[in-house]
Amino acid sequence: MSYCRQEGKDRIIFATKEDHEMPSSAELVADDPDDPYEEQGLILPNGDINWNCPCLGGMASGPCGEQFKSAFSCFHYSTEEIKGSDCVDQFRAMQECMQKYPDLYPQEDENDEKEKSSKDLEATPMEASAAEEKGSS
Question: Where along the chain is composition biased (Acidic residues) (predicted)?
Answer without folding.
Answer: 29-38
